[in-house]
Amino acid sequence: MTENAPSSPRTPPCLVRPGARTWRCAPAPAEVRDFHAALPGHSSTPLTELPQLAAELGVGRVFVKDESSRLGLPAFKALGASWAVHRVLAERAAGREEPGPVTLVTATDGNHGRAVARTARLLGQRAHVFVPRGVHPRAVAAIAAERATVTEVAGAYDEAVRLAAEAAAARPDAVLVQDTAWAGYARIPGWIVEGYSTLCAEIDEQLTEGGHAAGPDLVAVPVGVGSLAQAVVTHYRSRPSGQSPALLSVEPEAAACVLESLGLGEPVSVSTGETTMAGLNCGTPSSIAWPFLRDGLDAAVAVTDLDSAVAAGDLAALGVSSGPCGAASLAGVRVVLTGEGGEERRTALGLDASSVVVLLSTEGTAANPRAPGDHRTGGE
C-alpha cells in the first residue's frame, strides 16, 4: 500500500462478470487517429509507469495514461469533441446548408462542455453550454472564457441534457453535440466515442515502446454515461486475435448507474447525489454505450469520494496530476484487488504477479478546481 492509502480494506459495491473477454465487435474507424495527429499542437499524452503501485497491488507493472493536458485542455474530452464537430461541419458543408456560423449546444459537468466550446472558438463557430448544479464556479468560468454562452441549471446532469436538447431543437442554426445517446439521438454521440479511440491507440504504441507489445491485462476506466468505456471496449474487443484484457468500470457510489444496470441486466436511471467526481455524476447510461458495457465489461465497481481523494493524493506524490475523476481508476483497482474478496476477484479477472495494469487518468487537477481536502461537491 502507498503511504496515504486507506488502512483497512472494505467490501466495495462491485460486480465481476465472466465471459466478457470472448465478446467481439467492429473496430473504430482508422482515420480518427490521423485526424487528431494533424491538429495543431497535438501530441500523445504520457503513459507513466509507477512501480510503487505495482508493488502495492501485487501485479507486475502499472501504467497511468495521463490526460492532464490534451490539446491544451486538462482532460481527454477534446478528442471526442474535435472529431464530432469535424464530422458535423463536414456533413453540413456537403449538404450545402445555409452559410454562417453554427451554434454547438451541449450539456456538461465541465470538461466536455469546455472542449466543445474550445473547438467552436477555434473553428469560428458559437457554443451554448448547459451546466448542472454542483459544478465548481471556476470550471463554469473556464467554459465562459472560451466565449461560450453558459446556462446554469438548478437540476442534475440529466436535466441539463434535456434542456440542452430542447434548446438545440428550437434553433435551425444549432446542433446538439452531446456525449450521451438516447432513442433518436445516436449519430453524434457515436462520433464522440470514435474520437476517444485515439487514446487507446496511443496506449498500444506506448506499451510496445516500453517493451510490452502483448498489451495490458487489466484496463480501469472512470465512467459517467459510459462513452469512454464504450471506446475502450470497442478497442480491446475488436481485435481478431491476441490478448484481450479484463476491463473494469469505476463510478462514484453517488452515481453508479452502470453498476446498477449491469446488476439488473438492463439500462436503468439512478438518482444521483453529490460527489467530488462531478464529471462522473451521471444517472443514466448512454443508449449506444449500453450494449458494449453489458457485453464487454469484465467488472464494475463504485468508489467513495474519499477513495478517489486518497488516490489523487497518491498519484500527485508520484508525479501524476489527477483530479477526482481521473484518480477514480486507481481507487477502483484498489478496492477490487485489495478489499474483502479481492483474491477471488483477482482470480476471476485472470490477474497474477506478472500482470500489466493500465489506469486511465481522464483529467488533471486543473479540471477540478477545489481546495485540497474538499470532498463535498465538484466539477469535472
Model description:
It is built from 13 helices and eleven strands. Helix content is 39%, strand content 14%. α8 links the parallel β8 and β9. The chain is α/β, with parallel strands linked by helices. Strands 1-10-9-8-11-3-2 form a seven-stranded mixed beta sheet, with helices on both faces. Strands 6-5-4-7 form a four-stranded parallel beta sheet, with helices on both faces. The N terminus and C terminus are likely disordered.
Largest sheet: spatial strand order = 1-10-9-8-11-3-2
Query: Given the C-alpha coordinates, what overall shape results?
Result: globular
**Overall helicity:** 25-40%
| Number of β-strand runs | 11
SSE map:
Elements: E1 14-16, H1 31-37, E2 47-49, H2 51-57, E3 61-66, H3 78-94, E4 103-107, H4 111-122, E5 126-131, H5 137-144, E6 149-152, H6 157-169, E7 174-176, H7 187-209, E8 218-222, H8 227-237, E9 246-252, H9 257-264, H10 290-296, E10 299-303, H11 305-317, H12 324-338, H13 342-348, E11 356-361
Parallel strand pairs: 3-11, 4-5, 4-7, 5-6, 8-9, 8-11, 9-10
Antiparallel strand pairs: 1-10, 2-3
Helix pairs in contact: 3-4, 3-7, 4-5, 7-8, 8-10, 11-12, 12-13
